[in-house]
Amino acid sequence: MKYALFTGCVAKGAGRELMASTIYAAERLGIQLVEMKDATCCGAGVIQEDNPLLADALNARTFALAEEQGLDIMTICGTCQGVMRTAQVKMDDPKYRDKVNSELKKDTGRTYAGKTKVKHFYQIIHEEYGLNNLALRVTRNLKGLKVAPFYGCYVLRPHEYSDTKVPDRPDYLEKMIGAVGATPIDYPEKQKCCGFPILMTNKVNSLQLSGNAVIGALEAGADCIVTPCPLCHLNMDSYQPEIESMLGRRIGLPILHYPQLVALALGASLDDMKLNTHIVRPNKAMESLIKKD
After folding, report:
1. What's the pLDDT tens digit per position in 18-44?
2. SS3 58
3. Which end of the chain, N or C, is less surrounded by CB atoms within 10 Å?
4. Distance in angstroms (rounded) separating the CA atoms of residues 141 and 139
């Protein structure tokens, strides 16, 4: 299995632990990754609001780069996946793709043929690698660890652009959690917004949304949260001290990137996963799993 790795911005900046865990997990699963070092930012919805054609042309350039390698794209960011899949669905219309390609070719000499597919790491594990194969590779059973899934917006919405088969009742994260021996925790906030999109314009409401999610998982008995979106991770981890101050209560719930939980089950150390770079550090439940080795 071989993919063109679209890292997104966060994995090379504020969330480098995401990149480290992805490489660790992929190597142990035998998944070959070719990093797309020349790819641009997906636009994260911001460019789309001001100049949709430019935003789609930027993503078409990324798709064209992958087509030149004959590879599908693997992304590790739920937001990137949502933005890029939306662009692809729009360009499934040949007339609109021609319009985008006219801009793309004028500036780069490239064209997008509509062949490459964009897949999040969790989709690849679930649909192509196989959960049974993942379970066979587990070297550290996570039995006893209670994990709350948090999907984020772009993985599920808008439904017509989502690759999730049943966006109203997703189960990708729950099935992965079970495959590595942990216990998935159900709670109402798992499909809601973390608040990141409004962080710069309405910080109080943004952190309230994150606080609702984190406290919902905590009160449901979770030891940690796992999310496929690094922006959700940033809002729930980086701002958790501010959330605690705002809500007047101690939380202390670790937030994991999807590849970090997979890496943990594959034998990664705290250093391998760079968990000590998180604002909320590993708790006793997670540390006890590693000390058993």
Report:
1. 999 999 999 999 999 999 999 999 988
2. helix
3. C
4. 6
